[in-house]
Amino acid sequence: MTLRISLSSFRRPVALGFLAILLNGCGITSWFHSTPSPKAPPPITKGQDKVSFSTEWQSRLYGIWQVDPYQGTLVAHGQGQVVVADASGHLVSMTDSGHQMWMRSLDGRTARGPTLAGGVVYAGTDAGKVYALTATDGHKLWAVQLSSEVLTPVVAVNGHLLVQTADGHLWALDPKDGKVQWTFSMNEPSLILRTVATPTVHDGVVYAGFADGTVVALSLSSGAELWREQVAIPHGSNELARMVDVAARPVIAKDQVIAAAYQGNLAAYALQGGTQNWSVPMSVYQTPVLDDGHLFVADADGRISSVDLNSGDVLWRNDRLSGHYITGFGLCGSDLLATDNAGYLYVVDPQTGHRVGQTRLSDSGIQSTPVCLGNGQILAFSDAGTLYRIKLAKR
User: Fold this and answer.
1) Model confidence pTM above 0.85
2) Nearest-CA neighbor of 178 among 163, 165, 166?
3) pLDDT digits over 51-109, tens only?
4) How far is CA 203 from CA 130, 157, 218, 229, in A?
5) What separation in angstroms does the CA of 356 have from each of 43, 223, 328, 332, 353?
6) Backbone phi, then psi, for 16, in 5-degree steps?
7) Distance CA 141, CA 131 (A)
């Protein structure tokens, strides 16, 4: 295990004794995680290896890249274009075939990646800025300074840009010029994962998670609070044990919203009023996957489960990847996909939970969740800064 704490200008491994001294201070906004060492997965059960992999192309990008499941680099894709952002603040745009179109340098690091919407690329940085650039050539349309580090990708929806910052603020900006439409804020704990759930919008309501373990429903048009609920209540003898960040994006499932907290719970709430329908203890930082009325969850220990939407009961659980550092979890067609910090891509059968395919794409880790392009094709991004276009095929 590697223990690491990051303060505003201080990043290096620390001993537990010094960590305790730091935590006795006040006004600390930071993040912490323990990282299992990369390791090879166990072999797939005989007869279950049903998916093959082929690389259509790969492109090594300039920049500084780092793998972190709480804050992995996201890949934006649309209209034949791919946009990524590195940890030193470079935005890189490519064609669907992997050829670079343009690259721009922003003020501050952009570890959370860009958003591509309506011919515009939006990106936030750790310097607290949000940028809008033309997708065709990277020309800057506008930039706005917010109150602190941007922790989520920009969500573009119905004439609003939504983004959350490290000081507990949720911002709604005007896509035309970046002017503030409204803000909502929550008190942040002294120690955080340095990431929060990307807001989800449904029927004119914003569902947002915060580092104190709270999920909130707000009016998209005005920012007025509709309801709030506590997904997890902080407990423990120190700040590390009391970390209950809602880091997974809320998921809308029929008439309820599913929220999850790190070192907390997986819970379902009624869209109207926020009444809790069920809650189960589960530490989650990856966004759950909803498919055909079924909910799939990768927990912080690397276990993958199918969860009943009506009760929260676990229908099946695959613990063969326990202890692996899951960096991405998603769906492509009828397959569940997971990636880890050892550079492996896994395919899981959603009906049984069995691994039906796995391959090592890179000697380094894989950045966040692969992007599904359809027809069994995905984009996956390595810790070394290599973008892969992979074809999945049934054997």
Assistant:
1) yes
2) 163
3) 999 999 998 876 666 655 445 668 899 989 999 887 778 889 999 888 889 999 998 87
4) 26, 11, 11, 19
5) 10, 44, 17, 14, 9
6) -60, -35
7) 8
